[in-house]
Amino acid sequence: MIFLKIYFRTCSKILLNHTNESYKNMAIKQRDGSYAVVLDAAITTPQELKKIAEVLEKYGVSLIKFSESQRMVIVGVDPEKVEEMCNEMGVKLANAVGRVVRSIKFCPGNTLCVMGLQNTIEMAQKLKKFDGMELPGKLKIAIAGCSNSCTEPAVRDIGLMGTKDGYTIFVGGSAGRKPRIGYVLAEKVSPEDAEKLVEKIIEFYKANAKNGQRLGDFIDSIGFEEFKKAVL
Ligand code: SF4
User: What stretch or stretches form a coiled coil here (predicted)?
Assistant: First the structure.
């Protein structure tokens, strides 16, 4: 039970601690002219879900979709009411579009999963500081607790895969129009060093990539060995 309590306390913090104040990257126009907005809800509690559902019902939202990146897409929102609605729910919006850190997807790791080798929830909390950061291209991060890779870290711009000796770090992967497996940048990285390495990757990419260049394309443009030298 104690693990569940810690787990759900962590969930609440992740759900409630977004810091993005602008809506510019957060609303997606729908075919009927209404908007969809995105809330992070990879993990939550029944109490939080109940509260969210009550508020959405009050604002006439009729459809919720859970996205590939583990987020809750609220469809049919009146843009005029978004702020008021989010305040009532006690949540802030996540970034849905734009050249920003878009999503930080994580599995339950060793907090709940019997296969888990690393604390992915704690790692996700640490990496949340990058959420919404403006970059030359969109950037997705995935964290998995073991090599089963349920969150697919090898095909994300930055991927962390848990092993018994720490994390394997992938860079430059993608699952979109040009699918590609990321390069293995480092192995057996401690959680502390993994956090620092992610920061270094993001800083180097931000400072040196061309506008519109995804991380994988940027790495190819300078060569993986050069990239490695710069960030390791
Ligand atoms: S990646 Fe591993 S630890 Fe994470 S949910 Fe899948 S099996 Fe469990």
Answer: none
Nearest CA to ligand 1 atom 5: 107
Same domain for 173 and 144: yes
User: How does pLDDT run across 9-40, given as a tens digit for each residue?
Assistant: 333 333 333 333 445 556 677 777 667 777 77
Q: Which of 7, 43, 70, 107 for mutating ligand 1's site (highest number of atoms within 8 Å of CB)? A: 107
What's the domain count of the chain? 2
Domain limits at 204?
Answer: 101-231
Rounded to the nearest whole angstrom, what is the distance from the C-alpha of residue 223 to the centroid of ligand 1? 32
Same domain? 83 vs 118: no
Q: What is the pTM of this model?
A: 0.84
> CATH number of the domain that 72 lies in?
3.90.480.10
116 Cβ inside 6 Å of ligand 1: yes
